[in-house]
Structures are given as C-alpha cells and as structure tokens.
Amino acid sequence: MKLPTRFGRFGGYFVPEILAPALEELEAAFVAALADPEFKADLAGWLRHFAGRPTPLYRCRRFGGDGTEIWLKREDLLHGGAHKTNQALGQGLLARRLGKRRLIAETGAGQHGVATAFTGAALGIETVIYMGATDMARQRPNVDRMRLFGATVVAVTSGGATLKDAINEALRDWSASFADTHYLLGTVAGPHPFPTIVREFQRVIGDEARAQFAEQAGGQPDAVVAAVGGGSNAIGIFTAFLDDPVVLIGVEPGGQGLESNAHGATILRGRPGVLHGAFTQVLQDDDGQIRESHSVSAGLDYPGVGPEHAHLAETGRARYLACDDHDAVQAYQDLASTEGILPALESAHALAVARRLAAAGEFRRIVVNLSGRGDKDLATVGRWIEEKAR
Amino acid sequence: MSTRYATLFGGPAASQVAVIPFLVLGDPDLDTSARILDALADAGIDAIELGFPFSDPVADGPVVQAAGWRALAAGTTADDCWDLVERLRQRAPALPIGLLVYANLVVHRGVPHFYQRAAAAGADSVLIADLPLGEAEPFHAEAGRHGIAPVMIAPPNATSARLEQIARATRGYTYVTSRAGVTGAADPDAAVLGATIADLRALHAPPPVLGFGISGPDHVRTAHRLGARGVITGSALINRIESIRRAGDDAAAAAVDFVSILRDAALAAATTAVEN
After folding, report:
1. Tens digits of per-residue pLDDT, B161-186?
2. Chain A residues contacting B via beta carbons under 8 Å
3. How many beta carbons lie within 10 A of that of residue A315, not counting itself?
4. N or C: at which end does chain A have fewer Cβ atoms within 10 angstroms?
C-alpha cells in the first residue's frame, strides 16, 4: 500500500488474501484520480449540476436555547436527501476510471443503496445492492426507489438480516467478482483504503461549512456536532476543522440506553476488535462474537465504527456522546415544528445533543451536520409514538 | 514447531494425497461435535482442520456459515472449542491439528493469549481467514514464539512476487485455492491449480494442500495428478453430516464414511501411479 493504512493503532485491511490485490488496485486508482485535475473537475461538475452542491449553511431561528446559535449544514438538501450522494458519485467515477462494469453496495436504511443505485443509473453501470431482509421490510420506499433506478436488490437473510450481514454478503460477492466489480462501500469503515477514500469524498461538507461560517457568521464555530453510525457524515464535516480550535463532537446512538444492551454506542461501549476488515471499536461479547446493535435510526444501527473515529476518540481530538431513541425522536419533531425542517432520525441525534450543549451554555456557536432529510422516517416515528402512547 | 506436518508429508505414505476434513467446532452442538471428532480420530485420518464458529464469517460460503451459526446457537463458547481441541489431541497424539479462525477471535483477548491457548491445547497450525500478508507480521511472530505454524492461503490471483512472500511466510503447508470467492464454491480449476503448484514447488514452499470446493474422489485424483500433497474438504463433508443427522442417522459414522471414500481414492491414485 502507498497511503498510510492506519489511524494511530486503528484501521488496517483485515481481508482474505484474495482481496488484497483488489484493495491495492483501488488505492492506486484513488491516488492517481486525486492527482488528476480532469477527475477532480469531472467530480466537481457532477456535485454541482447533478447533486446540487454547495448546500446552504443555515442559522436556526427558534431551535435551541437563548444565547446559543445553532447552525445547520444542509446536506438534507442534496440530491437523494442525504450526504451519501457525495461519495457515491466519487466512488462511481473511480469505478468507471478503473473500467469496472458492475457496482455492488450494502445498505441498512437504504440511503446508501439509493445513492449507489442512482449513481449506477447516471453513469450507466449495472448495480447490485445487498440489504438485510429485516431492513427491506422496514424501509420499503427505499427498496422501491433502488429498483426504479434499475438496481437489483438482493435480500440478505443470514445472521440478523441487517446492515452487518449485508456488508458480509457484499464482501463475499466482491471476493469472487473484484476483477470486473467495484465494491462501493458506504461509510468510513471497512478495510483500507475505504476509510480514507470515503473521507476524502465527504470532506467537501466541512470544507464548505468552514468557509460559509466564516463568511456568514464570522470566525469559527465553538463546536461542530455530527451523528456517528459508521461515521461518514461526521468525518465529512470534522476533517476541515481538525487543525482549528473547534470542539468536535460525535453523537452515538444510545438506543434504549447505554446500560441496556440495545444501543449502537460503539466508541462509548465497544472494545477494540476486527470487524469488516478494520481494527476499530466493536460491540462484541466476551468471546469476540459481534453483537447486534440497536437504534431507532437504521442508519446508525451498526456494531462497528470507522477506525478514524476510534483514533479521534483515543487521542481526545473528538468527544463522543450518546443520544437515546427518545431524545432523537423529540428533536426530530421539534426541528420540524420550530424551523420547518424535517431532519433524518440520524441527524436528529446530533440536533438533540447540540440543544443539550446549548442549554448547558458551554458553547456560543454550534454547527450541526444535518446529514439527511427525514421523510424516510415518517413511518418509523409514527410507530414509535404510537407504541409509547400505549 | 511440532513435527507432525513434516511427518505426514515426509513419511512412508507421503506419495498419497492426505485427506484433511474440515469441521466447525461445536456444530451442531458440543456432544455431537465431540462424537464426530472421536470417531475421526479413531478412524486414523491423516490430519484435520477445525474452525472456531464466528458471527461474521466473510470468507465462508453458505454451508460453513450455517455450521458456525448452529454451533453458536447451541451456545458454543471459545472455552468449549479449546476443550474440544485438547480432547482430540489426547485421543490422537500424532494427528496434525490445524485451526481456522477469524482475526477478531485472535485479537479480542490479545494475540499472545490466543497462540498460548492454541499451543496449550495441542494445535499445530493456525490459519486466519481474514489476515492478508500485509497485516500478518505481528501474528506470525507470536505464532512462532508459541511453536504454532502460521498457514497462509495462496490464491489464484497472486503475482509471482506475492506468491514468493506467501511461500516464505506459510509454515506446515501451503493452502492453495483455485478460484476467487468463498468456501464451498464451484469445482476447482485444474489448470490454475497446476500453475500455482508448479510455482510453489520452484519456490520450495511448504507442501501444497488444495482447499475450496473439494467434494469428491475426482478432486482427490486431480490433486494427485497435479502434485498436491493434500486436500481439505469442508462444505461437502458438513453437508453430508448434516443431512444424515437430520435423517436421524449416525453423524459420526457419516463423517468417517465420507473421509474414507476420499482416502480410498487417494490410495488408489498413489498405487496406480506406482504400478504405472
């Protein structure tokens, strides 16, 4: 490998030997693409004209408390309705550069699957999406969207039939198909070079937000807050601020509470281990078996986390807090009623913590990555409120 | 390091392809698993590969995945697996025993701890399915410290430079696959295998043993013809055991029968070769 494969002691590429050459080929193509002005111009064009970048930075008028400004980076306004589009396009163009004729991807909530499917449609590349059968049942509209974009959606029935199992199945496919297939992994997790590739394609979020904040508000925010499942939207907004005196806060899904086993707080409650090709923080039992995670938000429901987050936590450069299902659903409703913006349940985790920090008076100006829109969560929130009312 | 692989591949029966069954420890439950291992040990098999069940076996096809989940669903723990290995070692002191695991099972309590347990239980080799050359060094150093042979897979897409590194790193034997993909996939590709085996021989690699998709006597004959020194048969064996067990018949006897059919083929191939 040419690039560093680790973030501190985390990262690496723990894959069967058969896949090592595929990762090396991908890394080489990525390094060459980033150095190629034509590739960068091509990607910038797609981001602007197809995806709708730049996205606005918007100051909340009513959400939050007195004395604290909460600013939203509006990735919800991106084509596809979430930040996933940024890197699906980046990797799609990379796959085309590599001459791959087929894209595969995993998806949990379906957002990454949708982004990969419309990227495949736009670039004219055959696309296969692996999705847990359980997730397919609870995210039906996204399955329909993927199929409209021409993708084949494969139901994964092994294990708990959720995101973790979909990634396993995508890796199995890739270990037989890498010669003509690109695995368009959806987050900053997985084996090197994926965490680095996805970060570089997502860092546009923070690069824009940093410049917009300086222009619209002046100076720099006191804190940047983002939800962390695999961690791509958080890394996307953190990266630009890493060398600034800005507090970075990642919000993990607290599910039914950190003391229950039903959460996805990998950094706060996990232990170092190897999952899906990376040495990182992992939810696992005493025997090293990977545990099922839980979150009301399917996009945060993952028992691993990107290795760079494990490193940022260990070095203390970023802080990690949890938000449980209840507070996330509350923030989802409150942003809608106070600002007229419906956030994704994932982003609602970050909003809830930003509001908590505002109430504590710790920061004067906070930027939240509003990583996606919440239309996809209407049914989930409806069911959740109904169940609580009983 | 133990001399069991050297004895197997250098001994009087060395002209015969070694038939190496692969099973998942604790599949379908501890008792049955122990009975199958006892029966195989008593039948005098050449060597054995034992997988530790893991929740996320990305290198395995559906049959081995299902075997692992049966074991985990039956409550098999790591301690149970070590007990089974130890018990087999006591029953078959000369049998080469290889372990097949995923990296998280090795790292979660510390790499030294794992290899220490492996040595104490009497294992001869460890293959980590999701450990490529580029990450192997600290694991192999610890294996060496505890006298465990680290086994590497030589895949069909390896460049000659990579094959050379694999030949140098692997100990005990070289695990050769002919196709990309996961365990239990399609028939092995003889042309690819022949080329890899010839390359490995030129590099003086440890004996080549074929795995992935080995399911019957034909594959044993192919292995013999290509100069492989052994075959590992997993998915086909597990399928056979499971269907016999589900029919209410003796799983242990099914395992022994399956392995002896392959051993007969290996013996016949070796004898024919001598007569010719």
Report:
1. 999 999 999 999 999 998 888 888 67
2. 1, 5, 12-21, 158-159, 164-165, 168, 171-172, 175-179, 271-277, 279, 282, 284, 287-290
3. 10
4. C
